[in-house]
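Fold it.
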Amino acid sequence: MNKSGAVHPWRGQQLLSKTCVVPQVVRANGAGLHWHVETVGTGSRAVMEVDRNVPSEPRWGLEQRLGEIESTVKGLQQSQSKIQTGTVGAPQLANGSQSSIPESSIPPEPPGRYPASAEMGEIDASEDAIDGMGAIKFTDEEDCGYFGPSSNVAFVRHISLALAKASGQSQMIQTRTDSSLPSANEWTRVTRPHYVHGGTSEGTFPRSQRSVNIYTLPPEDYTWRLIKEYFQKTGQLLPFIHEESFCETYFQLKRTNFTMARRTWLGLLNMILAMATTLTVDGYPSSEERIAESDVYYQRANGLCERESRTNNSLELVQYLLIVGQYLQGTQKSVRAWTVHGLAITTAFQLGLHSPRTNQDFPPLESEIRKRVWFGCILLDRTLSMTYGRACMIPEKYIKLELPTADIQVMGQSPVMDTRQRMDAMYFRATIALYSVMYQIIDTCYGQNLGLEDFLPVAEIIALTLRGETQLTEWRTQSLPSLNLRVCNTPLCSQDLEKLEAKDKITERFNLVLSLRFHNLHILLHRPILEKLLEAHGGPTNDTETTMMHQVCISSIENCVESAIIIISIVHTVVLSSGWRRDLLGAWNYSLFYTFNAGLVIIAGLLVSPKGTAAEGEVAPSQWKFLESSALYLNMAIEALQNLDRGNRVVQRIVDYLSQLALAVLSLSSGNVDATTILPSVNSYELFSSTNNHQDLFPLRSSHQTIGQKEVPMDIDLSEFTLETDLDWFTRPL
């Protein structure tokens, strides 16, 4: 038990019975006799099969083989006895007796590698150069991936080039024959010279150096606490698991020592524990320890279900895959997140979850769960499409099911008779409707992220933006009130938060999460116009087309910045609060993504805003007054992220990146004023760099970002801002 009272998953474990799985078989064949070793319970047994069709050999040869087999069996037994060390709960032995080892004398699982056996799961040690939150992690190999126009990779690309032009470094941008931005259908490939990392992560072992016993669980009270934590948070935001049935199954299996548990159910349980652990920011000495614990649950689930997911189909398996996809978005496994998501969708199609006619054949409760699982696939599909800049796998025309209903209770363990109190269904319906608008925006404004179209002219972009604005307004003014939900239309302050009551915690979480999603989508809608201005930034000041764009597009930029300010205010106010109010946001990685994206919008707005006195025909600086408080909200964004999840390496990288971008842009905007005085949060935060020199923020290096056949510099040289094992550049997200 650590100082906070949290129990590690590798301490005080329950050993699950393995009678529900196929035993591992190790065979040693000899002439005339077939020997194999079977794993049974916690021991092993040797079984001899006689093959009468094979002639016998001299007795001394058989005795030699017998000796070798006995040595093998003895080695397996010793290996399994080591594996049992670290488990608790008086596990059943092969003969049905109980272990007499006292709980206090059982040491934790050693961090080293276990011998190969049926109990050990294969470790998923994959890490991508670009993770689900948008961090590029350099490896010794070259990593490739497609990140289309809606991704933050594309947005940061626009900002970095505009900033290079504004800082007088445009002549250093190396291109072939065309200096324009690459089109959306080109590959993003990150390369760097070979670099040997030294050391390991502090206090942790490399993921490839650890093994986990897939048949163990934490102590019962700790497991139950994490289950409740999941259903009070993520389970409410994506309500596709029937809480009462799941908890009832858990208690039934616990009474029988999990002897009849399906592998997929155990995998689902472990992923619920993993998600609950990632959401519990408080109560751990460090985020590294919390992340390491959640990774143990993920590795167990992966060991239980990896083969199962390729051979079997079930509703339970789709639920498992959806939670895995959610979990992987907050890790450096974005490739696997996309792959798992595709597997969830294909399995859902195989089960007919998309078909109204098929769902009619099931009882009402099961039909409702099938429907919700299908909509869970759709929501994750839209999220990954937006963040990775890839085409949606499920076209909108495939969505024919009725929306989830509040008539059937899915969340909660006790009956709730008033359907108006079943807010999870209301929230789910609101989210589905909002993400339908997201699909239309990605389809029209971003060409479904396929990269098959040339850049649209400004007039067409404005027309598409107005159409999307109408759809968002209808959702906010018509759909939400009918569901007793709302979104924030003005920045949130601490006084607003103090007015909320604890009894309305779940509903208020729905309102705040919907507010973040709505305003992030509002930014996505107006971002193409902002990117057009970024493209023109640094060009001829008397360019007629650029002047016209500023005059026509200024209201769109204002809408974009206002939504960014509201997002930052929500995250900042909640993160800096205390008690139950500190728990009103969703998963930390989503809050991180929304805040970072909002900060980028303000930075882009500062870049394209006019400097000095306006010439004849240009937009007067007074029309850009909405940017007057931009420095304040950039500072709030940095402060919010500093306190979002202290010690989290992903968050730290983004804080560094956003801080350096903000300092660079404010230095250009404020003239001789020291930008660090405008952003006090930067001075109060220890960056990865040991230097405080912000004069040269954009040194180019031999490392570069190759996109298609063009080469452009990486956004900012972050080689000074490193951990012991990483050289991280942040360019995209979840």
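The first helix runs from residue 59 to 84.
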